[in-house]
Amino acid sequence: MNDKLSKEEIEALAASAGAVSLNSIAYNLHIRSQLARRSFYALNLCALAFLFVSGTGIMEGWLDQVNAPPEQGVTDLKIRTLLVFLLFLCVNLAMTFDRFYIESLVSAISIYLYAIATRFSQFYEYLTLEDVWPFAVFVLIRLIPMTLLIVLIREEQRRTAPDRDSLS
Amino acid sequence: MTRSERIVFALLAAYACGLLGLHVLYYAGLFTSTERDPSVWIHLTRTFFVTSFFLMISIQVARGRPFSLLVVAAASYSGATFVEDFLVIESSFFLPEHPLAGSLYALRPLFMLMLVYSAVLRRSIESA
Asked: Does the model's ipTM exceed the 0.85 cut?
């Protein structure tokens, strides 16, 4: 039997091998649950929305409605944008190569928690009753990515739980 | 925990205790840079985060449960505050002239390195 592959066979093999590349977001999303997939897309959407909005004056305009000094003792918007961009990059690269994914998510939630805690702490001293609804919207917008991060971490832990159990 | 992990953990705990001691002195009204102090709430936030990480990791170590993700989270938090301090509100919390604050500031890169080392080591042990 001739063990050499024809040109068509080699091309077909390369095409099928390419379709199931382990280092692709498509494949690594495919092996995860639907909830994880949707949360991942939603988190990316939130990060992109933040990166887009931070370049405009919309956020500061909204903050003007709340009676608080935006620049006092709070991380500069440029630094926050840089951190969000880095975490966005980390999570997506981790998903692409399926390495350090849960670590990226945990890092993101840790920094995000600190960022929103300091951001909210800025308001406590100045909030009045009239600021309740803009502040509530402000809080809700920040709680969405946090919820998505928690869901993604839970899903990832659930996905890797059988591996951990089989090793122990 | 391995021997090297125990040593690193003891050094990290000593640093965290020193940091919390500095916070206590701040609340007692000693050596604060009031003219540069941005907000007492940010101070409280930092005290809360350091105490929470320290307590949660210590409890998990005592219970013999996995704690690598907590160390990863603590390392990330430490990195974010480092960026914040040096790029935005440098030396705004304590007077760096004070010996305790000065030594803690000087040892901060070493502390962060030890934290990252501890996170990588523990994560590789727990996921192996």
From this structure: no
